[in-house]
Structure formats: C-alpha cells, structure tokens
C-alpha cells in the first residue's frame, strides 16, 4: 500500500506511466494509422486533351477527386496541401505534382503515379489484361486487422517497455541514490517483500495504463481487437517483467540513476524507430534489420498482437517468449533486490 | 563585466558537467539524425535500393513455353537489388502459414493451367491468366508489397501490348516536386536537418532552461547567490548566455556531421538559414521561460516540458509533414510556433511544405515571442527567485 501511495503521489511517475503513453497514442495514431483512419486522400486533376481520364481515376475508388480548370489552380492546391497529388494530362503527357518530404504518404504517391499511368496507357491503347492479379486479403489472427490495430498494438508494446524499464530505474536507481534502500535495510522488511511490493505497484500502474490505451484506441481509432483476456494478462505480466529486466540491467551497468535513465531513453528511441512497430522493417537497410531482430520490444509486440487477435503465433513460441521474459525479470529482480538490500 | 563573465562561465561549466545535458543537448541530436537518415533516407529520396519484401511463390505447375515469361518476370523482380526476395513453396498452406507468422510479406500463387492460358491469351488474343497474391490485411508492409507486385504485372501487360502493337502510344510522365526547388531535387539529409536542429533547441529551451531556474530556486542556491553583489538581471543574462552557448556547441557538432558524413552543403550555410535558427532559439527560449513562470515545482516543469516538447516536436512537423491530419487535431498544428519555425528554415532552404505565407512564418512566432517574454517579465521576480 505504501508503495502504491508513493507511486500515485509521484506526479512525474503518474504522468510518464499513465498519460505519456496516451499522448503517444494520439500523436502516433494520427501519424501512422494509415489511410483507413481518415478520409480518402485528395487528387487534383486538370485535363486539356480530348481523352477523359476522370472515369479511370474514379474507378479506383481510392481518391477524392477534385477537378481544376487551370494548371495554376492545380499547382496552388498542391502547394497548399489541399490535394495530395496533382495530375495534369494533355492526352499524351502526364505531369504529377506533389509535395516532397511527406514520408507517411510517399508510398501512396509512388504507387499512384505508376498505377495511374499504367491504367491510362492501357485505356488509351485499348490494351487488355493478359495477366490479372487477384489480391486476396488474409487474416493473420482472429480478426481482420486494420492499420490502426497494428499501430495501437505497437503503442501498447512501447508503453509496456516504458513502464517496465523506467519504473525499476526509478525504484532501484532513485531509492539507492537517495539512501532509501539503506533505511530499508535497517527495518525488518525482507528484500523479497520490498521487491514484491515495489514491483506489484508498477504492475498495477502499467495495467491501468494499458486499459486506458485500449479504451482510447477503441474510441479514437476504431480498433477492432478481439482481446483474449487470459493471454493478454499473461503477456502484460511477462512483458513488464522482461522490460523490468532491461531496466535492472541498466541500473547494474550504470551506477548513477540519471545515466541509467538516459541509457533507457536511448534504447526507447532506438526501439521506436527500428523494432518494426511504426515503420516496416522492409524499409530498413540490412544492417539495421539485424539490430531490429535483437530488440526485445519486437517480441513484446508479437505477444500483444497474439493476445489481441491481430496475429497468431504458435503456442510453443508464445510459451517460450513469456517464460523467457518472465524468468529474466524475476531473476534480475531477485538478484538486484538481494544485492542492493544486503550489500549497501 | 568580469564578474558577469565569471558567473556565466561558472553556470555554463556547471551545466555542461551534467551527463544529462551532455547527452540530450549534444549527443542525442546526432543519434537522432543518424537514425532518421538511416531509416527514411532511402524511402524519402525515392531510392528503392535496400528495400526488399519477402515473397513466397507457389507454382502449381512448372512453367514452360509462354509460361516462361512469368518466370522471367519473377527472376527480374527477385534478382539482386530487386524489390523482392523469393522463397519457393510446394504447398500453399505452408506458404500462407509463413505469411501469417510474418515470415513472408506476400504469397504469389501461379495456378495450374497457367502455361496453357498464357499460350491461349498471347496467340489467340483471348482469355486472361489469373494469378493470386495473398497479403495480410492491415499490415502495411504486406499491403505495399501486394500493390508493388500488382503494378509490376500491369507493366508486364503493357510491355506485351507494346511489343505486339507498333502504334502503341507511350505516355510521357514528369514529376513536379512543388515543395523543393526544381533545380536541385529532394535531399532527405538536408530536409531533416532543420527538424533535428529545432529538436535540440527545444530540448535546451524546454528542459535545461526552466529546470535549471527552478532547481536553483527550490534548492536555495538563489538565496545564496543574492547574498553576493549579483543582480537578478545579471543572473538572467548569464542563464541566457549559458543556454545559447550550449545550443551553439550542439549546432556546431550537428553541422560537422551533416557536412562531413551526409555531405549536406549550401543551404544550411545560407546566412538567412542561420538567422532562422537564431530566431528559433529566441522563440523557444522565451517559451521555456514562460514554462518556468507557470511551474512552481520541478515536477510540474518536467511534466509541462515533456508534454510541450513532444507535442511541439511531432505536431510541429519537425520530422513528418502534418497538414494531412484531420481538422480535429490540425488546429493545434496552426497554434504551435514550431510549425512556423521549422517551415521558415525549410522555406529558406527551398522547400515549401506548409500552406502558409512567408509573412505568417515570421509573425506567428513573433507573437509567441512577445507573449512569452511578457508572461516571463510579469513573473520575473518569482522565476528568478528574489521576491
């Protein structure tokens, strides 16, 4: 109870474990939830030739089409961001206008350029499709997932990383630096009771944070999770323990809690960008893909996706991952607790 | 003057001795620059080299005759440097299993009868050759890979027609990148530079500055300082100079890496660009001083600083353009000074990302500057801790 009161009285800890992940959910949700979260992207069209390509664009159903009477008007609309892509067509030449630097829309623009040109060329030359490609969507889990589902499950994984890693740095690093551990040593409190009490509180805070994320992602981004609660709770417990192990490892390497905190922040940034949670691993250079495969949050995301019904991993993998994360956390908590409470 | 200099020097040394300051102000911007250019450099620059998707191919019959055309296409797209890496499967179920487990991005199925259909379609000009591509719904990499394969097949169809029809009309396509100067093209390493620089400026302004002031106030250092002949205005001036020094050192490091490692030249050395960075420093520092005015405790300053830092960084468009966001959240984009500051620097470089006129790029941050300084001036005694 004392640890729970201490944790909830600590404004910074409450902010970083409860509200900071929500802030990230909102920010990253809007950035990376993909086109299914918003309206269709705008495509501006100006035509000066006889051949009308408006029906070809409309057939795709992927764009909100806006017609322009002049090339200048189209350019202005692209510059102002009113349309994502401007197409100017005179019967033989197609000019694509777009703003450079929009990474989230880069693949959409590139794909649109090649598909529109091909579709117009096909219609213009009356070419028939010899090879047709039927796209068959597969469900990797229990539900047909959306982009938002993948992004939000990633936010949960990052949140577990943050809550687990930073909480133990706070407990063991901060308490050690302030001399709190020394005071505990002279009380009858056993190391195991201390470790159990302090980590249980962090579990509670972490769990509340995850519930908030689930509710917020359902309300804001219409996620379609099929939560298997027993698996989900197991995954949260083992992942929090595993991430605590990472934090404890840092406290063992770096004696100063601020240094350990900084090292944890570096790891966090690296994992956000390289773990394949927000950006596809296919975009990474080969050497960074190797780094990506070694990042634990990648496996936490797999567990979370499995328990939310987005993806299915084999039962044996689920067990091995959970056991490995839990064991590493428990062992490091045990040894760190003993070390700091007995040898100070 | 020498007292002032000695005090500034002492404050700066005290600041720079902190590991956190060294890391967040000097090292982290370099690390972030490296990560962003490594992850997005190829994609943003339209360079497909290095991007590869894993494709599983199920051939329900071995290709021969006209069917060999498909083998040639697959060979081309899975060759060294191509967009796909091939794994061959005999069994569709096994391939789909690997797709669902994330070992593959897509599965291409070449069904039985493809050879005959290819021959019929090419020789008799009738019928189609249906192929199937399986992808995982909602998974971005899988969807992109399926779309790329679809485009490649479209191109193959057109190429066949092109070879059969001497009157084939090719459409000439041109790209008009409206955000970058036409003559130089887009350079991601250059484009992201102001974003990283502004991130560093924000970090110093929103963390180092208010926390330094509040730390000195709550720890009682201020009281000791004011027992000396030091005046509050001198203390503030020294604090400001200390921040500027920290930012300048970080900027020099960032410039060195940009110039030597990423070969960014020209635009970032433009005097107007450097002026825009100085303007960003002034606006951001004043913003940090406003935070110090509102926060009594260190914990409040940390929470306020972190929240504003993340919001100003991401919603200000430092790394990703933000004008495609829904209006429910886009209003915030227009409110933040960072939106205008980073766009101002990029506009000077030749990019035109935001639909905002040059006048507003200067006026809005100026309004923030005046407002923040006014708030700080009203709370000067409280912030500097001599009330």
Description:
- The complex is a heterodimer of chains A (344) and B (387).
- By secondary structure, chain A is of the alpha/beta class.
- Chain A folds into two domains: 2-34 and 146-341, no CATH class; 42-124, Alpha-D-Glucose-1,6-Bisphosphate, Chain A, domain 3 (3-Layer(aba) Sandwich).
- Chain A is built from 13 helices and five strands.
- In chain A, helix 6 packs antiparallel against helix 10.
- The longest helix of chain A is centred in the middle third of the chain and has 32 residues, at 147-178.
- Chain A is elongated.
- Chain A starts with a helix and ends with a helix.
- The model of chain A has no long low-confidence stretch (mean pLDDT 82).
- Chain B has two domains: 2-44 and 191-383, no CATH class; 48-164, abc type-2 transporter like fold (3-Layer(aba) Sandwich).
- Chain B has helices at residues 2-16, 19-44, 68-77, 92-100, 114-123, 140-164, 188-191, 193-218, 221-225, 232-260, 271-294, 298-314, 327-335, 337-349, 358-378, 380-384, and strands spanning 53-59, 84-89, 106-110, 129-136, 172-177.
- The mean pLDDT of chain B is 86.
- Chain B is elongated, with a radius of gyration of 29 Å.
- In chain B, 41% of the residues are buried.
- Chain B has a four-stranded mixed β-sheet with strand order 2-1-3-4.
- Chain B has 387 residues and is an alpha/beta fold.
- Chains A and B meet through helix 2, helix 4, strand 4, helix 5 and strand 5 of A and helix 2, helix 4, helix 5, strand 4 and helix 6 of B.
- Strand 5 of chain A pairs parallel with strand 4 (129-136) of chain B, so a sheet runs across the interface.
Task: Give keywords.
heterodimer; A: 344 residues; alpha/beta; Alpha-D-Glucose-1,6-Bisphosphate, Chain A, domain 3; 13 helices; 5 strands; 66% helix; B: 387 residues; abc type-2 transporter like fold; 4-stranded mixed sheet; 16 helices
């Amino acid at each position: 109870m004392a640890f729970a009161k201490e944790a909830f009285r600590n404004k910074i800890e409450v902010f970083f474990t409860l509200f900071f992940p929500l802030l990230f959910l909102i920010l990253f949700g809007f950035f990376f939830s993909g086109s299914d979260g918003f309206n269709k992207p705008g495509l501006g069209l100006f035509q000066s030739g006889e051949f009308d390509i408006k029906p070809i664009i409309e057939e795709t159903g992927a764009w909100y089409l806006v017609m322009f009477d002049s090339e200048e008007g189209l350019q202005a609309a692209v510059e102002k961001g009113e349309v994502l892509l401007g197409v100017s067509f005179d019967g033989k030449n197609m000019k694509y206008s777009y703003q450079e630097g929009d990474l989230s829309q880069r693949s959409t623009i590139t794909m649109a350029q090649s598909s529109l040109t091909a579709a117009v060329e096909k219609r213009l030359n009356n070419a028939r499709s010899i090879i047709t490609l039927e796209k068959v969507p597969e469900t990797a889990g229990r539900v047909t997932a959306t982009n938002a589902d993948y992004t939000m499950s990633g936010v949960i994984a990052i949140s577990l990383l943050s809550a687990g890693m930073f909480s133990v740095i706070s407990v063991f690093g901060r308490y050690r630096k302030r001399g709190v551990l020394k005071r505990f040593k002279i009380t009858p409190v056993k190391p195991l009771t201390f470790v159990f009490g302090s980590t249980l509180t962090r579990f509670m805070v972490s769990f509340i944070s995850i519930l908030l994320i689930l509710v917020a992602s359902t309300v804001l981004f219409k996620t379609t999770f099929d939560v298997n609660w027993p698996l989900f709770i197991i995954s949260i417990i083992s992942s929090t323990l595993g991430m605590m192990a990472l934090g404890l490892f840092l406290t063992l390497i770096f004696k100063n809690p601020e240094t350990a905190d900084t090292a944890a922040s570096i790891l966090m940034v690296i994992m956000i960008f390289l773990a394949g949670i927000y950006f596809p691993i296919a975009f990474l250079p080969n050497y960074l893909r190797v780094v990506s495969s070694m990042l634990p949050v990648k496996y936490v995301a797999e567990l979370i996706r499995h328990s939310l019904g987005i993806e299915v991993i084999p039962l044996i993998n689920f067990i091995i991952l959970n056991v490995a994360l839990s064991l590493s956390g428990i062992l490091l908590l045990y040894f760190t607790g003993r070390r700091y409470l007995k040898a100070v | 003057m020498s007292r002032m200099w000695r005090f500034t020097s002492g404050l700066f040394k005290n600041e720079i001795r902190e590991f956190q300051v060294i890391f967040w102000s000097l090292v982290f911007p370099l690390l972030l620059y490296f990560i962003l250019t490594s992850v997005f450099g190829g994609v943003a620059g339209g360079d497909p080299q290095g991007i590869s998707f894993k494709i599983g191919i199920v051939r329900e019959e071995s290709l021969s005759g006209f069917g060999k055309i498909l083998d040639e296409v697959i060979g081309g797209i899975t060759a060294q440097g191509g967009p796909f890496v091939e794994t061959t499967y005999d069994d569709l179920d096994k391939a789909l299993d690997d797709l669902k487990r994330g070992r593959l991005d897509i599965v291409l199925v070449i069904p039985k009868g493809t050879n005959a259909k290819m021959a019929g379609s090419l020789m008799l000009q009738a019928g189609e050759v249906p192929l199937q591509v399986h992808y995982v719904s909602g998974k971005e990499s899988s969807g992109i890979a399926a779309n790329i394969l679809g485009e490649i097949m479209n191109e193959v169809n057109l190429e066949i027609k092109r070879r059969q029809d001497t009157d084939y009309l090719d459409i000439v396509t041109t790209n008009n990148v409206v955000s970058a100067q036409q003559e130089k093209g887009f350079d991601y390493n250059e484009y992201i530079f102001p974003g990283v620089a502004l991130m560093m400026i924000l970090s110093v302004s929103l963390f180092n500055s208010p926390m330094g002031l509040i730390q000195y106030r709550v720890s009682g250092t201020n009281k000791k300082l004011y027992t000396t002949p030091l005046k509050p205005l001198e203390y503030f001036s020294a604090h400001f100079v200390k921040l500027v020094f920290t930012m300048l050192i970080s900027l020099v490091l960032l410039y060195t890496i940009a110039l030597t490692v990423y070969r960014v030249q020209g635009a970032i050395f433009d005097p107007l660009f450097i002026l825009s960075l100085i303007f960003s420093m002034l606006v951001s520092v004043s913003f940090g001083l406003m935070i110090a005015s509102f926060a009594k405790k260190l914990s409040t300053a940390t929470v306020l600083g972190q929240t504003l830092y993340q919001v100003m960084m991401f919603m200000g468009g430092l790394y990703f353009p933000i004008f495609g966001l829904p209006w429910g959240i886009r209003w915030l984009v227009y409110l933040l000074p960072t939106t205008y500051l980073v766009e101002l620097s990029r506009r000077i470089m030749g990019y035109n990302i935001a639909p905002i006129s040059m006048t507003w790029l200067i006026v809005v941050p100026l309004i923030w500057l005046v407002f923040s300084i006014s708030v700080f001036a009203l709370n000067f005694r409280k912030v500097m801790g001599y009330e």
